[in-house]
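Hi V.,

You were right to ask for the full record rather than a summary. Here it is.
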Amino acid sequence: MMSEGYVWIANDLADCISPKFTRSFCHRCMQGVLGVKPYVPKTKELENFQFRWKRNFQQDNSDIVDKHLSTTSLRCTIALAMAIEKTSTANLGFQKANVSNTSATDLENLRVSQNGPNLVRALSNTSFIGLTGDFRFINGQLQSLAFQIVNMNENEARRVGFWTPRKGIT
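Predicted structure:
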């Protein structure tokens, strides 16, 4: 279904389109795929942070080449850290998971955090403005003020438009 006559529209075609990804995946297969990803404005602060992160990552992991910092991962990691700070750290116990059939897996070793419900509540009430812009949940959904519409062309995602709640597609 990647031949002429088909159209692929990828939801949240976020930060996976890195040079390493496109080298490992057939770029001809991705040719023409349309996708959306949250729009994160490029700021000097974000660029400086990404530069420092990549330099430090490469110093600590010299065997990994071309590591791309996902802005989506960065946003979610910051939100999770903030939610953990909001929740009580007094109850960090883990209970054995209730798994009925474990014959084919190691799920019997899985433990579930007793603080999970508090963490979910704190995370869904977390909002901030950071290096990657506004981060907030509404009705359990991560909001974005704008999305980029991208088209895979050669080995890169090329921006072809934007979508905003106020103006629609531009």
